[in-house]
Write a structure and sequence with these properties.
- It is a single chain.
- The protein has about 220 residues and is of the alpha/beta class.
- Helices cover about 50% and strands about 20% of the residues.
- It has a 3-stranded mixed sheet with strand order 1-2-3.
- The protein starts with a helix and ends in a 9-residue tail after the last strand.
């Protein structure tokens, strides 16, 4: 018999992307208040890839790093929502050790610049990776396809014994896969990128993966 968690996770996975995003930010903010934080982006959590606080201790960034990144994500979400709901709905956010990835499609260059400006206003942000494009936004079919791609890549990483899957975040926007995380070495990084490229319906792969011994990492 499925657990209550598995049942809820499956139920949330059937929601439209906008509804999932609203649920995710409310949950993140609620957990932030109690000091228990979900550790993945909205889409990732919706497909059941969110890590618990206990699991965070095994991530390369550590528990404190995961908590800090989640707090940064929540604050960016708050700023987007307060400024313009379309920013909140159309831009995906991933944060790894203070490095923020913004990926999505907005209606104007003004919206893109505003999103970047708001992100830099959040304490703890060390750099911003702007992967926002200007266009008409994703359709329901785009969102469904992106969710399928992300799920398949995460599954492939989990079953690859040469990859520490817990260290990676994935965002897919209209077939473009954005990879973030910390690789143990070049071999692992290349394996992660290869899994993404080999996944059906992927149009492009953008890697922001850093190596464990990268001197630019915080605390190294």
């Amino acid at each position: 018999m499925a657990s209550a968690y598995d049942t809820a996770r499956h139920f949330i996975g059937t929601w439209p992307s906008n509804a999932k995003r609203r649920f995710c930010i409310l949950l993140t903010l609620a957990f932030t208040g109690f000091g228990i934080l979900p550790l993945a982006g909205c889409t990732s959590m919706a497909i059941g890839a969110g890590a618990t606080a206990g699991v965070a201790a095994f991530q390369e960034r550590g528990f404190e790093g995961a908590v800090s990144d989640t707090a940064i994500t929540a604050e960016i979400w708050q700023k987007f929502l307060a400024q313009d709901e379309s920013l909140f709905l159309n831009i995906e956010i991933e944060v790894v050790e203070g490095e923020v990835l913004l990926a999505g499609e907005v209606k104007s260059a003004t919206d893109e610049l505003e999103a970047v400006k708001l992100t830099w206003q959040v304490g703890g942000v060390r750099s911003v990776l702007n992967e926002i494009s200007v266009g008409e936004g994703a359709s329901f079919m785009d969102n469904a396809n992106d969710l399928l791609i992300t799920t398949r890549i995460k599954t492939a990483l989990m079953f690859d014994t040469d990859v520490f899957a817990i260290n990676y975040s994935i965002e897919t926007v209209k077939g473009t896969v954005h990879l973030m995380g910390i690789a143990q070495d070049d071999l692992e990084r290349n394996r992660v990128i290869a899994h993404a490229r080999d996944t059906s319906y992927v149009r492009r792969v953008v890697s922001h993966i850093r190596l464990k011994n990268d001197a630019t990492r915080q605390g190294t």
